Amino acid sequence: VRVGDGTLERARFETVSGGIEFQGEIARGGMFNADTHSGAVDIRLSAKASVEIDAASIAGTIENSLTRQRVEIGRDGRGAALKTSVGPGSARLVIRTFKGSIRLSGR
Q1: Do 69 and 82 contact (CB within 8 A), yes or no?
Q2: pTM above 0.90, yes or no
Q3: Pairing of strands 20-36, 7-15
């Protein structure tokens, strides 16, 4: 699933093995959910983003270059979790994967 430039108010994307790519903005008060079993999730937000982020992967990795918040590595070195905010955090972004990787970056 690829979603290009634009602003989303509410969105939910789910895949089993395919990736989810988003480049754009989430509207103030908006909600964005991305769920995948083994696909990668790549989120690129603009510099003026205002979003609270809750990301977790049971067996995958998380790469965060959006904020200085460190990724928490799971037990036995498997999986990862990240809770952080960009700007005042007026929108919400929730990402869940089982073994897919998650990448958060600016654009």
Answers
A1: yes
A2: yes
A3: parallel
How many angstroms separate the CA atoms of 20 and 32, rounded? Answer: 12
Amino acid identity, residue 83? Answer: K
pLDDT confidence of residue 103: 98
Residue 48: the pLDDT is 85
Structure tokens at 77: 């070195």
Count of residues in the chain: 107
Place of tokens 């990402």: 95
Q: Report how far residue 98's alpha carbon sits from residue 84's, in angstroms, rounded to the nearest whole number.
A: 20
Which residues contact residue 76 at a Cβ distance below 8 angstroms, ignoring those fewer than 6 apart? none
- The average pLDDT across 55-61 equals 97
